[in-house]
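User: Can you predict the 3D structure for this chain?
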Amino acid sequence: MTMGPVLSVRDLQTYFFTKAGIAKAVDGISFEIGRGELVGLVGESGSGKTVTGFSILGLVDPPGRIVGGSIKIGSAELVGQSEEQLRPIRGRRIAMIFQDPMMTLNPVLRIDTQMIETITAHEGVSVEAARERARAALARVGIASPDERLMAYPHQFSGGMRQRVAIAIALLHEPELIIADEPTTALDVTIQAQILHEVQKLCAQSGTALLWITHDLAVIAGLADRILVMYAGRIVEQGGVDQVLDKPLHPYTHGLIGSVPSQNRRGELLAQIPGMTPSLLHLGKGCAFAARCPRADGRCESEAPGLTTQSTKRAYRCHHPLLDPPEAAAS
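Assistant: Here is the predicted structure, written as structure tokens:
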């Protein structure tokens, strides 16, 4: 059993080296996830969420690479490990559920072949035992007639059903950590709720840690224990799910919550954060959110805010946080 955090990320830096310059997709982020803990990583497209997940699994390809920091699963350091060294960790200790299920599924192999090989590649069990586990995994994610479905090919499934198969594959080994990158986007609300319930149950029963990457705050509100809010390659706020959603401290978090449709009155235009996400190639010296922030001043434009910690799990990166009553922020 893993002691301490299941996942520990320290000062992770993942840069993309392009002809136009260096894009700092992930720029010095740190966080931990404990056994059985469900953590949401939220932010707009281009904030660095998916690159964070790929970095943990060692799936960043050129022109991108990890240039600094540490990623540990238990006590095992992942940064700098070879493909051969990472292979027994992927799938067994860490599983990833991709937004596109065809990144998991091979289109020319039957579902039973893929699921059985996933099990036998890491465990010395019989084919029949592996088949039974595969059948149970399909049933767990709400696929009817699992025996029949095991004999099918991916093209015979709908997009939503393919995603459920991909999720079932990720659950096969009851890994220490699951990284889920927007995996329920293509599923209807009923199936989405069923999947979220199964994931929560797995985490509670087996101690599996979960990093759920999404832009959907409604999903995170009902799923996560903690939230990490990411913007332009950095974590700008983190804390308990209720703390962050009920009383955001960073103006960007406040804007994200305000842009959720349920927060807007019927018939009115949806609230939006003004402006666009900045280019990661041309980030200035100051706060990356300054150009879009109603609270920004000259200091925000010239000086990047440090991380202010309120408690062991509550922190923010802002010169002018939404504090009430006002408190002095110490970088």
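Residues 326-331 have pLDDT under 50 and may be disordered. The first helix runs from residue 49 to 57.
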